[in-house]
Structures are given as C-alpha cells and as structure tokens.
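Journal club prep, notes for RB
We'll compare a predicted complex against what the paper describes. Inputs for the zinc ion case:
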Amino acid sequence: MIVDHHFHLEEGPYNTHWLNRTVEAIAIVEEERGGLTAPAHSLAWMEALGAKLAKRLTDGCFSQEWLNLYLERGKKLGIKRFGIVDHLYRFDEFRAYYEQHMIVDETKLGRLQSYWLDRVNSCSIEPFLLVVRQAEAAGYPISLGVEADYFPGGEAELRRLLAPYELDFVIGSVHFIDGWGFDNPQTEYLFKKQDLLGLYRRLFELVRAAAGTGLFDIVAHPDNLKVFNYRPDEELLLPMYEETAAALAAAGVATEINTGLAYRYPVEEMCPSPAFLQVLHKHGVPVTLSSDSHYPDDIGMLLQEAADLAMKSGYKEVVYFEKRQRYTLPL
Ligand SMILES: [Zn+2]
Ligand SMILES: [Zn+2]
C-alpha cells in the first residue's frame, strides 16, 4: 500500500451512533497495539475502554494521541504518504460560505440541513492545522489538506477564504447539487422525486466546473451520486464520463480512487466505478488512493484492492501533493 491521500480525524453529527463507532474504533486499534491489558469483554476491559473513550472526548479529535492511532496503524499497513484533510464545513471560519450556498431555509430540506450544519460546524481550523503540522515535524510523511465543497458562484469567496492557509493540497468535492447535500442519509428521499439521468448530468457538470476553477488539486469521488444506489444504466453515463475525464485532463486536475463508498455506504462500490476509471486513464487523468476514513481503524481500508484496480486499468503510478506541487509514486 502506497498512499492514503484523503482521510479525516472526525465527522459529526454527534449522535449515539457516533459515540458507538468511536468506542469501537478505540477498541480495535487499542487491542491491536496492546493498549488494553485486561481480558477482552471483561468488566476491567470495559472500564479501561471507557477511560480511553472519556480521554478521547476530553482531548477532542485534534490531539496528537488520536492522530497517532491513524499514523501508527497506517505505517504498519505500509502507507508511505498520508494525506490528512478535514471538511471545511466543520470550521467556524467557513460557516458563512456554507450558509450562503446550502439550502438552509424553512423548507423540510432547509430545516434538516440547517440542523446538520449547526451540529457539525463545531470548531476553528487552527487546532487541526497545528496537530497535523506537529505530526509532520515529528517525522511522519504527511500532506496537509482540506476537503472543500464546490458551489457554483462561490469560487471567489472560497479563494479568499483559503488564501491565508499554507496547505499541501486542496480537495474539491461535490456533495451538494443546487444546495441539496445528496449524501446525507436523511435527505435520501429526494432521489425519488427527481429525474435520475438529469441529476447525474448536473453532478458531472458540477465536477467539470470544479475542475476548471483552478482552486483544487484533486477532485474527489467523482461519481459519488451513486451513494444510495440510485443509478441509471451505466451505458447512459459513458458519454458523461468521457466529457468529465477530458475536462479533468484539460484542467490538469487529479482525481482519486476513493474506497469510502465501498465499505460504508449502500452502493458498496469505490468511486470512480471501474468503467469510469478506465475512461479516466484513457484521458491521462492522474489518480491517488484514498480510504476517506473517519476513524483510525478504517485507515488504508480496501486500498490494496484500489491499487490493483488502478493497475488493471493501466495506471503505473499514483500521485501525492506537497506545497501544491504534484509528485508521483510507482504502484
Ligand atoms: Zn467527500
Ligand atoms: Zn472525505
């Protein structure tokens, strides 16, 4: 395994599922590294686990200890370059950008998204930047980035908002179509109300527009609209794949093989699909490999499979970024 160029340290909203998933991650990685000495599933084990969870909650996700769980585990898996990002919507500094471009009005969707933004927008970007730079200074091969949402018409504002930060890379993502966050399970009902092919046309239009802004080094998960398995016949998507791959190539923007959808969403397939990946290769679009992990036990998840798929599609190398410059590593 070579790179995991897109993973996160946390993701809300902070419901009981989140708490469960967090303690599960701690149990898995601590068992692996011998951090829990009591016999598994004994009361003493549970108390030790509870203490670790309490410490995690007190320290937050931007602590060296939490980040080290990812890095130690990733190193053991053979990851040679870590790309660490967080979603801009988590940070106070970018809240107005989201409020302006998401639907947050008094409609059902608006209220739901407003509630969501209120919960996930929870801190400043500064502790994130600091903890990642500290780990880099400690010797880990890290690229520091952010995952920014692309909104048409928001380009100038995003450029202004990102200008103060010295980042190794910026990922551009389309998680919103005309203000609707389509990968939020709570808004899945909206898929049933729309022309599916028209939605895919709009998604790829946005992906191409994002690539053309010059704001992004990587455009993430380029066919993530399939997240809940609402998919037209792929034959009908092939011309959109062609046009999108050509636009990425022309803009000199990379994309990724992102395994997140394959292991934690109903579609159970990586982004891009195998057919789309072949089209991307034909157009010479560079790729990197990403687990899109949000917990330390998911780092590197399915990335060997992703690398195999890349090689099968003709790729011989993957890319990573440092100080906004692109470098390659052989597969
Ligand atoms: Zn994403
Ligand atoms: Zn992500």
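Talking point for the session: The chain has a mean pLDDT of 97.
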